[in-house]
Amino acid sequence: MIAPAVTTPTVSRGVRLGYGVGSFCTATVNAVPGLLLLYYMTNFLAVPAWLAGVVVTAPKVWDLIINPLVGRWSDRTRSRLGPRRPWLLAGACTLPIAFFLVFAGPPLTGVPAALYVGVCFMATATAYALFEVPYKAMPGEMTHDYHERTSLLQWRMIFIGAATAISGVLAPAIVTSQGGNGTLGSYRLMAVTIAVILLVSMFGSFFGTARAPMTGAPEADRGGWREQFAAIKGNPAFVWITALACTQMLAVSMMLAAAPYFAAYIIGTPTATQTLFAALVGPMLLTMPLWVRLSKRFDKRGAMILAALMFGGGTAATMATPIFGVVYAHVMILLVGVGIAGVELLLFSMLADVIAVDAAQTGKRRAGVLTGLWTAIESGVSSFGALIFGVILSVAGFVESEPSRPVEQPDSAVTAVLIGQTTIPALIIFLSVLMTLKYRLTPPGAPAPDASA
């Protein structure tokens, strides 16, 4: 049940903008490796598809350890900068460097290349946790108001849309700027460009949240891991929102990993990745006010169901691209983008609700622990999207290659690309709709949700 309404300090527009700009980190670190890393390893470093999938997935397992730790540390941090912002600064100083190194390695191929990328991607995951876990904990502590949290987070989603557009359109454009599928040099140029964007946005968020209100519990939870995990396990709303996020983001990550292959082998041109991404993220920039209104009209549960149905329906319909062509594919991806915009906004708003309720009920500051666990579990599960897609390609006979020795893929591999981009993610999303039907988060004064759902 959502905490009762109280007098709530208004979050200023400057703070909203300062907080929102930090989403360039979230969107970029998720989108660029999710979109390009698997393809980079299989088609430029001659890494077998299954091993490339393992490399993309393995650092995410580390998130299960580092994210809760960072959350716990940030809960217990006492600083004139507040409990969260010192960690934003630490991430800003380390993440851009680690990200650049992922795509800027020595001239290695095969297993040695996989090992190098894996180590650098592990460092990237660690630096990302330093910033992202405290960053996601902040909205639940900025305001007590049920609907203001959604309004606050629409700014975050607008910046995510802009950042995803830059990452999903600019990054592939830089990669392909030197011809065809790109070169190792173009990947390095892309990496340094994105690293600079990360640096500017993360420092912008650090300074922009200097005046952010702090309305959460004043005292950190000093209990041990066992006591904290036991309390969290007994929080059905948190368990539900985590399971829902894992399900939905698994589908998103699989589609991201499949996108360059879909553009190259189904549409017939690698550069289509850029226009497909533009169609996907455009709705994030345009539909946020609509989703805020829908969440007030139908409550967050009803709006989530609508968003997931649009997401899953558009994804399933994209299966017909070989019949109807490239324009049809872009229209369907546009529909998917409208659904994803709603899904992501509502997921983060519901998480902020859970954090606020936990602080109100316990009187303890546990936003970092909750966010750390949520981020770690969601990230770990969603990373299996690339692994699943890589395994599907390997089973279907996909042949890894280098730019100097291109190969023609068998029909079975091309069919696997289509299924991995459309059918399987759609089934996962429709499962999330069934999950959402069994739970309701309500505003103050409404009937309490069924905690057993």
From TrEMBL:
Q: Give the organism, scientific name.
A: Nonomuraea marmarensis
Q: Which Pfam families did the record assign?
A: MFS_2 (PF13347)
InterPro entries, alphabetically?
MFS_2 (IPR039672), MFS_trans_sf (IPR036259)
Q: Which CDD domains match?
A: MFS_MelB_like
Top-level taxon of origin: Bacteria
| PANTHER family for this protein | MAJOR FACILITATOR SUPERFAMILY (MFS) PROFILE DOMAIN-CONTAINING PROTEIN, MAJOR FACILITATOR SUPERFAMILY DOMAIN-CONTAINING PROTEIN
The transmembrane residues are 21-41, 47-66, 87-105, 111-131, 152-175, 187-207, 237-263, 275-292, 304-325, 331-357, 369-393, 413-434
Task: Look up the coiled coil feature and give its residue ranges.
Answer: none
Quote the protein name from its UniProt record.
Answer: MFS transporter
> What UniProt keywords are attached to this protein's entry?
Membrane, Transmembrane, Transmembrane helix
